[in-house]
Specification:
Blueprint lengths: L12 H29 L3 H28 L1 H10 L6 H9 L17 H4 L2
Helix pairs in contact: 1-2, 2-3
Length: 121
């Protein structure tokens, strides 16, 4: 299963909805993977076409859910706007956005992150 459920009690509805969106995206991505494997292994051309069609539908669902998550969370919005739809190497995009190779922010950069790296200062 993609998720064990909530890790805290008494969560507000918007947090529960965001969790639902994340879990749904995970399930759609898993379905895309499964259909991809079935398409690759299938020996019947008609069935392969159906499975490929089903995989495309799951990709559509994943894209819709990802867009919903982007609209609900400013950090998702920022990151997706930074990384998606570029022809540059992905790590070069990250380096340009953070000012440092490997994704670590440049010294003194205020990223607003509460990641472990931000706690080391």
């Amino acid at each position: 299963m993609a998720s064990e459920g909530y890790h805290e009690e008494g969560l507000p509805e918007d947090v529960k909805d965001f969790h639902r969106g994340i879990v749904s995206l995970m399930e759609e991505l898993e379905a895309i993977d499964w259909y991809g494997q079935r398409v690759a292994a299938c020996t019947d051309e008609a069935l392969r076409a159906i499975l490929a069609h089903n995989r495309a539908e799951e990709i559509e669902h994943a894209a819709m859910t990802l867009e919903w998550l982007r609209r609900k969370d400013p950090t998702f919005d920022q990151q997706l706007r930074t990384v998606l739809f570029s022809d540059r190497p992905i790590t070069a995009i990250e380096e340009a956005a953070t000012g440092k190779a490997g994704g670590e922010p440049a010294a003194g950069a205020n990223t607003g992150s509460l990641a472990i790296g931000s706690l080391r200062k």
